Amino acid sequence: MPNEMARSKKARRPRRGPREPREDPARNELISRSLESAQQCLLQQDYGTAFVHYLLVLNLAPVLKDFARESFRFTLFKWADELDSLGRIQDLFDCYEQAVELFPTDEVIVNSMGEHLFRMGFRDEAAAHFHKALKLRPDFPEAKENFYRVANWLVERWHFLMLNDHGRNRKYQLAIQRAVQEGCSTVLDIGTGTGILGMCAKKAGAREVYACELSKTMYELACEVVSANGMADSIRILHMKSLEMEIPKDIPTRVSLVVTETVDAGLLGEGIIESLIHAWKHLLLPPPNPEEPQSAPSQTGRVIPGGATVFGMAVECQEIRRHHRLCVSAVGGLDLEAVREIRSPVSCSVDADESAEPYTTERLSRLPGGFTALTGPCRMLDIDFNNVQELESLCSRKVMRLRVPVTQEGVVDALAVWFQLHLDQENSISTGPQENTCWEQAIYPVQSLAHCSVKRNDELLLEVSCRDAYLRLCCVAIVRDGQMFHLDSMEEEDYSTVALPNPEVDLCSALASLQTRHDTVSNMFTLECSEIALLNNVNYHNSFRMAVEKLLTSLRSSREMQASEVSSSEPFYMLDVSEGFSVLSLLTARLGQDSGSSLVQAYSSVEKDQHQALLRLLAQSNGVEESALQFWLSHVEDDSAVLQRPASEKLWSAIVLDCIETCGLIRQRLMEKATLARCLLEDGGRIFPERIVIHGLLVESDTLLQESAVQGTDPTLGFNIAPFINQFTVPVHVFLDLSTLECTHLSDPVELFTLDLMNSSANYISRGIRVRVSAPGKVTAVPFWYQIYLDADLTVTTFSQDSHWKQAAVVLQCPLVVNTGDWVQLTIQLHKSSISITAVREEAVTADDATAEEEPVPMDHPQGGLC
């Protein structure tokens, strides 16, 4: 028996309090020395060593975290940038993981790691970090902007349009319901997206439903949606490509029905052919046997959609033309005739670059200036998705040639393509230009050497193929009065003289052309669509030329007054740091040469070899000396520090900044670049443009609402999807054509904000204005555009028919119901380069107030802290 006395004595032993940590002089000395070393390394810009010292200090003494947080962040960011520039990507992310382990709730570090992940192409992981940073601090503007930016990549805007398309959703539901009722009890949804088609199958009574989704973001979203709709236990979602699925590893048995909508505007661009061939071979039950018509549907396989018919027509469209072909012979005094041809990277021709896309996409009904159909709709191709032999032979078929009658005289700028998706025998979906659906049309630009002019009763010879599992469509010739004129060699005046093709003559001609092909090809260039549209913008280049002429005249006058101090032979230095291809540096060099005195030394920041070759060719053909135009990046050691002095003792006379992105947003870090550029200008020098004024107006637009968020449960057949996908709603819509946007204007245009690149004291961070409502309605958005002031008098606008820029719009979270005469208070804020707008309807305004405040009034006084 245990000793009771011993137990009681033990129980009566007094408890000790928590033991005080022993002082460890050696440890404290190490912490102190390491902290001092970290600070010394920072002063010496040895960020890698400083980072190691900080890691040691903070791991040994966590109590110092608050004290050292700012210095640690600074060190981490500098060291990460250095590792990035050295290509040590794994080391970079190792450092961030160590930092996040030390500071797991530091939203700045979490957000910064997301930025690096995004730049490296890890969009899903980046989104997770931005989302975490927002949870840690919901009002963190950098994380909010980053999340909005990455949301466009992770959940493309067409998801919202598609889910809001009740007609499309309902037809899919009916086709699935019919198939399940006929006995298709096991279903696989390929490319499930939000899971809506899989849920339709389960609701229709399918016994087993599987779904697969490659995108991690969409996979997680589908899991949330299915769970919220009470189907988590009855729909199994796999995060993988269907091409990787195996039986019984991923699903237990073959299924009787595959549903999918992995189609794009060109039908085949999302890989539906490859997916269905694999499904028929490995995942689906065999198709019905015609010799056994009594086979039960549960024992055979089928696909929804069952097939598709592709249609196309030739169109004339100035908007398409100016984005895919050089349409002008001169801009800003520069002769462009030396360039044989400039093409966009969208081409189906046999000599197209491997990186060329076969088509682009447009909503024909929204193209500025409209379009003219030059032919009637032509049936191009029929595909049976339930015939695996046909699918397998599709890509190996010979090129099919079609003759399409011309019904309208004009210039063929493109072939527009759409399709009818046959879900089953009773339900189909059309993506045609006349349909009010979520679909755009595929556009195949015609990029011949001369305008492809056609007349009534001509015929277009088209080639149709499915090479590389893409639908490829090419206009190769015009047939007129029994004669054929090939577009790659003809000119309009040759119509009456060119004879029918002779094989022997063609062969001799081809052999002879080999000798001159090198010279010919050297004068053919490929530019991005937006770069071609910019080059076609005559007004922009002419305005820039006049602004530079005025600046050079002013600078020459100043130098003449300071003749004793400044050499008259000293050139004017001009730097163009435009993004992508630009001829502004060459235009300026030409102006300096034309003046005959005080030459201009112009520098271009273009990087691509082809861009530089094009500028050299144009310089030579315009008589510009080779030394007058140079490429700036070959003169700087660090490509990331483009804005530097032209020489140690020199300053720039003019710096051209690229301020507006093609999509309609202000370029990132614009004001920071302007601040640095001002410090690099000589007296009287100028930044082009010197000022940007943002204009906007109030509109009501259901289209913008449909494209920004899922509007409740009605469009999605009663399924609860909106709250989940609407997490990826972004407040600013880009790439808008305001001239064709379906909307009602509820106010006159007003000036929203001004950015002054030459005068920092004129800038402000936020501004409030009052806008008078001119028509009753519901304010859903504020579209905006820019007036770009090259100088005080010369301006260009981004809202014009010849502009290569698009417009953007802020979509309000809470639409405002307004009446004529109401006042709406707008608050416009600029954080870095991102614009945000909030709107509040004022309840009542007296006549005196209305008179006094009709003009926009800044809410805050200008602040110099912005730039």
Automatic annotation (TrEMBL):
Start and end residues of each Protein arginine N-methyltransferase domain: 372-467, 743-836
Coiled coil: none
Native source species: Pygocentrus nattereri (Red-bellied piranha)
UniProt keyword list: Cytoplasm, Methyltransferase, Repeat, S-adenosyl-L-methionine, TPR repeat, Transferase
Entry-linked InterPro entries: Arg_MeTrfase (IPR025799), PRMT_dom (IPR055135), SAM-dependent_MTases_sf (IPR029063), TPR-like_helical_dom_sf (IPR011990), TPR_rpt (IPR019734)
Keyword Cytoplasm: yes
Predominant cellular place of this UniProt entry's protein: cytoplasm
EC number: 2.1.1.320
Basic and acidic residues bias: start-end ranges: 17-27
Compartment(s) of residence: Cytoplasm
Region Disordered: start-end pairs: 1-29, 846-867
GO MF annotations in UniProt: histone methyltransferase activity; protein-arginine omega-N symmetric methyltransferase activity
Record field: catalytic activity: L-arginyl-[protein] + 2 S-adenosyl-L-methionine = N(omega),N(omega)'-dimethyl-L-arginyl-[protein] + 2 S-adenosyl-L-homocysteine + 2 H(+)
Protein name, as recorded: Protein arginine N-methyltransferase 9
One annotated Gene Ontology cellular component of this protein: nucleus
Start and stop residues of the TPR repeats: 107-140
